[in-house]
Amino acid sequence: MFRRILIPAVITAGIVSLAGCGDSSPDSVLSLAGADRSLAGGSSGPVITLRSNLLPTQVSGEPTEPLDVFAGNGLRFTWSAKPGESGSPVAGFGYAVDDTSEWAPFSLENTEWPPSIKGEPQFWFPDAGPHKFFVRAIDEEQTITVLVAEFVVFLGPQFCSETERFILVVLDTDPVPLVANGIWPADYPDVERALVDSWFEGYDFQLWETGGTAAPPVSLMNCASSTFWIHGSDVGAGAASVLESYHLAGANTLQSYSAAGGNIFLAGIRPSEALRWFESADDGDRIRQEYPVAFDETLGGASWANWVPHWAATRLPLAEVERSVGGGRSDADALPRITVATSAVTGGPNPYPELPWDPARWTGLTRGFGYFDFAVRPEDGEVIYELNATGTSLGVRRLIGPGVRGNAVFVGFHPYFVEDSAFRSLVRAVLIDFGEPTDPER
Length: 442
Known about the structure:
It is a single chain. The chain is an alpha+beta fold. The chain folds into two domains: about 25-155, Immunoglobulins (Immunoglobulin-like, Sandwich); about 160-435, Rossmann fold, CATH 3.40.50. It contains ten helices and 22 strands. The strands form five sheets. The chain has a nine-stranded mixed beta sheet. A hairpin with a 6-residue loop joins strand 13 (about 275-280) and strand 14.
């Protein structure tokens, strides 16, 4: 397993009540916030909520996790506040960027940075390295709350030299439920590693295994020109999944990685089960969607006007998943099965192969395998695989061009269930589409 030692960034949500203090200057506010974090729990000042397109939503007084971020599509902050324990109304906001030598004056109009222009959101493109963003709120009793967000910015693979770039393979697998029900063998993690070695033989790649909980560090992904994310967790059966955790709370690293130029290949056990969380732009709440899941509705649909655009539609490109199919235990059930994933990319210089199922990988069945998403509709992309030549789509792609361009391929089933040689051919075809060179040393 590839691991890298990191020096983590720190994100701090500090609250300082200055009612009755002799010095309420910004510098003294931050000095107090840095000196005594315990003040956060006893403040009666405003409660600030800070939101960002890249950082997780932060609430003053609540613990937050350290985070590194990509800034490929720019960084943007919005905030609000409600009265604290005293009940005193909020009277204004101020903010500062990177240091507190210049604060924006208190105003109830200060609720975003960078400020929108004629209703159009603007974005900050910070340099690589550590940064800070400060928000303060004052109430009518002159009690001030300060929230400090501290983070480290990475620029992504477009800013890495060709010799620094590599392919990252992420096995996002919690095998317990599938091993317990006999679908996967007890030694499945070893099997999965062997498959990866076969698929990427001759290429410079690194392997990261999440175990369902350990997300690949941004510092590792920074120079990964392409990331192949294999989702091996049956979320519907309670398996842990980093892919799902990206949508439950915090920032979605894959979205900003793609915006920074990284190519993404996503396949696995019912990936939409991990993806189908929509985030409110008002309060940051996440709501799990029922099927069919229309990710593109968050791009401006009337029902989801106040929700954050879902990266499945903006980056993958996945507009909709009509249904996600579970496993089933016998041929007697009425569930659809994949006997062969029929290629819809049969012409041109780089056709994709047919992907027939391997009956040895799921004994006792004759109709094919389950655990897949189907009737997937592309958003500004094209269908690449169909269910048993029926025209029902199983995978989509958006190709911008070879190189570090933010290309994306989505396959709604797990490669373990198809013939090894066929999926190896697909991986090789996608690597060509992504413009990945073979390793000259192998």
